[in-house]
Write a structure and sequence with these properties.
Two copies of one chain form a homodimer.
Chain A lengths: L7 E6 L3 H12 L3 E7 L3 H10 L7 E3 L2 H5 L6 E4 L6 H10 L3 E4 L7 H14 L3 E3 L7 H10 L8 E9 L4 H6 L11 H4 L1 H12 L7 E4 L4 E2 L5 E9 L5 E7 L5 E8 L2 E5 L10 E8 L15 E6 L4 H19 L6 H21 L5 E2 L3
Parallel strand pairs in A: 1-2, 1-4, 2-3, 4-5, 5-6, 7-11
Antiparallel strand pairs in A: 7-12, 8-10, 8-16, 9-10, 10-11, 12-13, 13-14, 14-15
Chain lengths: 362, 362
């Protein structure tokens, strides 16, 4: 008989909107459950628990310090504003709680390195909450991109992620508040574009980042819209655009010598249960260049669980292996997160340096 | 009874591969016919006429000078290598023949200006042979982009056009020969990307062009693959990638505050009789951000005639109005062509200046 996977007991630190979606995902994942919620106000935590149907007996705390003392919490989901990540993520892992950290994970790589070092020292699992990485569509697309006969060599990548912030968002959302999420749209939507580019490039850091001129900022100087170009010394190129001022779109185009991948809903699929993408290979101009030999093929990938539940399930599987078998933490997620941050930092530096090219750190 | 549109009598100067497609298009257009073909070798012209089913009586010439003397030719289609355009396009219009000029139209805007000035002085119609401009899909997409409630304000544009050159192409095609088409992929595939960006921006020239680092060149220094960013001082941005080293793709993404347009076959539709695009408006995250309110809608636009025949038809209509009614030449095509060349020149200058930003001329 197969061993039962242990159920990972989650605490949620902060009642952000995104915590509604992730607490549902923790409920859907077969190897995870929510046991505690903390807010700076205990009533807010209690309301969150009842409003979103969390399990009976979920403990409510009125401070982040208190939830850290809860020995029944194995892992913490931390959706706090980015400026609070350094303090509370480090405090979490110092209590030997595994860390599922909302993006953007840190204001800069120096801060992130302190979080990641704390994870390593304390032997806890780290993962950033980039949900689309866990959709089976993502694995299916990677399979195609990894096939030399169907995709060939990577040549270029483009990604765009935008959504239109309404008046309330523009006035008060944490993502446009310089004290809470100073990276603005670059840390939010841009995070996904950069992750998509790294994902498509096999996580090879680009050599250079150049931000495009005239990014849009609010009065406090927080980025509302920006774009950048990333280049590798071997000639591969990538571009991305992210915006709070543009209608929703979530695009990745990955162009190889032998094939091309396109999708326009990579961050959050149009619907939960299945997700499309298009791929074309071995095409070209037909006879007389009157059309194409074959058009792109539409693929649809179904999923039993939404991508955020698959994320929680994978995180919890890794936590379970540490708990049950003494495995070491999986470092892949930490490395990917750090590379994403390095590119964000380089793009930010280029914006701050008058759009000069910036070498991407390592 | 409606007046019969005059039939415009075309000469074809040079038997390039693309002339096969365009001579077929001249045959399909109801107001055009081929009457003469010139090559540097009369047998090549004769072979072209018989191999591609041109009308009986089509005259064959063994030099470009001779076809210019043919008074039965109203309009010339010129698909010569770019380095020959200045000489032969000017010679054509000085003979008061209307000019349908293959792209890239010139090696630089100074050369193009000499061609365009000759067109104006001689009162002939000019059009560059950018076929997709004439597909009814293009008009349908423009209608959506022009609708403030469905598209809103333009925020960003991305375009990509690539196709994979085979060994023969890389060794001997005019598009990679420094003496024939010195602009390489920038003048060929890049022409379309830049035109798409200008089209989407209402032909407002960007203020600045910055080429991306590490474009690929062949041994003679001809561009095989390159990318660039274009920016407007009001914050609009565009990026494009063009390549002879990448699988076929023909992408435009146009992102507005209220809607987004996507297509991946803009240069040559997958098939002749209809062409798709996708458009989304008034969408956003659904309740709980578990999906989208509405996914993009797929539109399919049918056409009776292929886009290149519609191009010939429109060009011939304009020529007919000059011939029959003494109308002045339509300047729109000349202006669009010149703007496209200005952006090409700026991108080329940025590549040649170590990827520094270059102000787009006017």
């Amino acid at each position: 008989m197969a061993e039962q996977a242990p159920i990972v007991r989650f605490g949620i630190m902060g009642c952000a909107n995104i915590a509604i979606k992730v607490s549902r995902a923790i409920g859907l994942a077969p190897n995870a459950t929510v046991v505690a919620v903390a807010s700076r106000n205990v009533n807010k935590a209690l309301d969150f628990i009842s409003a979103h149907g969390l399990p009976e007996g979920t403990r409510a705390y009125g401070s982040y310090e208190e939830i850290l003392e809860d020995e029944g919490v194995d892992a913490m989901y931390v959706p706090l504003p980015t400026s609070l990540h350094l303090k509370w993520a480090v405090a979490t892992v110092e209590k030997r709680k595994h860390l599922l950290l909302e993006k953007p994970v840190a204001l800069c790589v120096a801060d992130l390195d302190r979080i990641l070092e704390a994870c390593e020292v304390n032997g806890v699992q780290y993962m950033d909450a980039t949900m689309w990485m866990h959709h089976p569509r993502t694995a299916k697309m990677k399979e195609l991109l990894s096939d030399p006969s169907r995709f060939g060599q990577l040549q270029s990548i483009h990604s765009a992620f935008s959504y239109r912030g309404d008046a309330k968002f523009m006035a008060s959302d944490i993502r446009v508040n310089v004290d809470l999420d100073a990276l603005g749209v670059l840390g939010d939507a841009g995070w996904y574009c950069i992750r998509a580019i790294l994902w498509a490039s096999g996580y090879q850091l680009p050599d250079t980042a150049v931000a495009l001129r005239n990014p849009k900022k609010n009065e406090a100087g927080v980025l509302l819209s920006c774009a950048a170009a990333l280049t590798w010394d071997d000639g591969r190129v990538a571009t991305f655009h992210c915006s709070f001022l543009t209608h929703i779109t979530m695009e990745i185009s990955v162009m190889g010598s032998e094939g091309v991948l396109n999708l326009t809903d990579f961050v959050i699929p149009y619907e939960e249960s299945s997700a499309p993408f298009s791929f074309v290979s071995n095409s070209g101009f037909n006879n007389g260049s009157l059309g194409w030999i074959v058009p792109p093929e539409k693929h649809v990938v179904s999923t039993q669980l939404p991508q955020e539940a698959l994320m929680v399930q994978e995180f919890s599987r890794l936590v379970g292996e540490i708990k049950s078998h003494g495995f070491k933490a999986e470092k892949k997620w930490l490395e990917i997160s750090r590379k994403t941050q390095l590119v964000i930092d380089a793009v930010k530096a280029s914006i701050d340096n008058g759009f000069e090219p910036v070498q991407v750190g390592n």
